Amino acid sequence: MKLPFMTLAAGAFLAVSCANAATATDNYTVTLPLSEDEDGLTAYIIDFDTSAKLDSTVVDGGKAIFKGTVTTPVFARVILDGNRAGQFVLEEGDIALNPTNRMATGSPTNDALVNLMSEQQKHVAEYRQLGDTPEDKAKKKEIQQSNNDLFENALKANAGNPLGYYLFLQQCYGYDLPTFDAKLKEYPQFADSKRVQTLRQGLINKEETSVGHKFKDFEITYDGKTSRLSDYVGRGKYTLVDFWASWCGPCIRETRVIKELYEEYGSKGLDVLGVAVWDEPANTLRAIEQHELPWPQILNGQNIPTDLYGIAGIPCIILFDPEGNIISRDKQDDELRADVAAAMSKASVK
Length: 350
Hints:
- By secondary structure, the protein is α+β, with helices and mostly antiparallel strands.
- The protein has nine helices and 15 strands.
- The strands form four sheets. Strands 13-12-11-14-15 form a five-stranded mixed β-sheet, covered by helices on one side. A four-stranded mixed β-sheet has the order 4-1-7-8. A four-stranded antiparallel β-sheet has the order 3-2-5-6.
- It is globular, with a radius of gyration of 23 Å.
């Protein structure tokens, strides 16, 4: 059952930061409980869509308190010491971020989002209690449909505010390009968002790097060394490329499968390459050592490979044939094992 994460973009707005000193024109307060160990750090509110800094304050007394003026609601993110510290709709009201889940309450749109997620959690809890009997499977389908209807109705009801935009994005992350374009035609008000435009381009790039297409090369420079995908792919051997990050639990779990494949087929002509994305190199290097990953790695890829290949989530594992053609993409576990086995059976015949 798909659980949407809070990711959203929205239109521009005017916010005037006054640190902790309120003025007569202020119409919002945002309070984020932290700890006194974080006193003295600067917290920022940034526009989720453009990453523009909209407000800032210094943590004092174990809290980050923002005060200012907003004219048009916008989805925003709090950044503290370079790390994400919560997402919310910046609008008029006394907004409080929960210190545990960082969900926001205290204003109409934020309260509506919390209520919506609460309803979804009820669906999730009911779903998880069911087994695999025919009756339970039928009930699961009903719950999934109820959950889809819940979000679709909320999207229609909130199509003119940031909550509607959030729901639009959550639906579109799982779409192919034709379905995405059809959805955007239904909600053209979201077309100017930077994130929507980026998402659409990503779907185009994903289509252009799907099974049957030739690899697209990229180069990454880190610590004075430039590495290219073409240093490893299209050089006469089957190559399994794992796009991953150290903080990604599913990525780390899938390395066990990749290790098994490498041990079984490495001596038979299968190469493996890791490409670290959306990660700090120091964290990547620690994970490589901790999990004993024996294959070569391209470090500090960040968004370059993922943008080029239209990768919206990791791990993304792509299998290239000896000429650099894509023969498997986005497979994991037994499906990945089957695709590699089929490819290596062809290699052994040659």
